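Our platform keeps sequence and structure together, in a single record for each protein. Such a record has a labelled line for the sequence and another for the backbone structure tokens. The tokens are whole numbers drawn from a learned vocabulary of local backbone shapes. The remainder of this section carries one protein's record, kept here as part of the documentation:
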Amino acid sequence: MGILSHSSCPMGANPMTTRGLKNGVNARTEKLGSTKGLTAMSFRTMPKPPIPDFSYLERHISRYRQLVCQGEDEINLRLRQGGMQRVGFSELVGQYSWIWFDAYGVLNRGTEPIPGAADTLERLRRAGIPFRLVSNNASNSPQELQNNLAKMGIYLHREEIVTSGMVVADFVQENRLGEQPYLWVGDLVSAHNYAPQPHRWMVNHPQSRWEKDAACYALFSGNQEYYGGAQEAILRASGERRGVPLLLVNADLVAPEAQGSLNLVSGFTACEAHGDGRFPLMGIGKPFRPVFETAWRSCGCPSWDRVLMVGDALETDILGGACLGTATCLTLTGLYGPMEAELENIGDRLGIRPDYLVQSIAWDG
């Protein structure tokens, strides 16, 4: 993604001289008179919106596709040419030098492991086939993620884990945003794990001295505290002053949970806030390049066509992997399993077709 700079957010801005807002920016901030001193306690957050119909989500998937393809005909053609060949997972592994797995919907659903996932990882290790977990998790640290999966009987080494949260600090510096105030959309635990210098630059940190409308960009890690809360109000207030870029750390639109339920996550929230384009989108997590390139470097920079990306989401795992030239495999244990009978039509309609389809990553599945 391109480098952004904002004349209204100079490098090294002084938090004590940033002006406040006029009263009545919107219905939520009006009752406070200004956003100064706004904290998470100022509002009572509301439940997340209900899961929309898939036809509604397609608008956001199309936006992701446009951002990732950037009008390149070769990439567009590659995305449409996936054969969607139905195979058993064990038939694929010997054809590639590296296997990259998504987590949710592939290894686990919420706190429930996908049957056979742990066994497959152990078989890969015994066969000497290296792999990575490439996740849009921007809340848990790699150690926490490692521990959470271990409780489900899924064991990963620390060096086998790459999360989009791990990419944030470098991305911010590379895009010349490193000394500018920002809004962290997510909880304080995720901010502790991944927010860049939160005590100094995060406007919604409990110890922040910044005016709350001073945010020059927003990092979307989660949305548990967003709806109806201070984070939503701060984003809207900052947006009154400038086009605040929305950096998609966790770009997932929907995530699978235990017992077949689904959860709207921060990618959906950012796409909704993007709306008419007033808030430009910048990608960090899948399907965007930064997290994939971090994983690629951790593997010694193999040829992209020697990597197999395995995921449950067309709009993140498959879209991002295919655009970079990896082989792609969609597992039906996650988001698209209930739509199995319609997948050919969905893939054609979205212009995102994986190379392979598997029922699960179970070795004999």
About this structure: DSSP finds 13 helices and 15 strands in the chain.
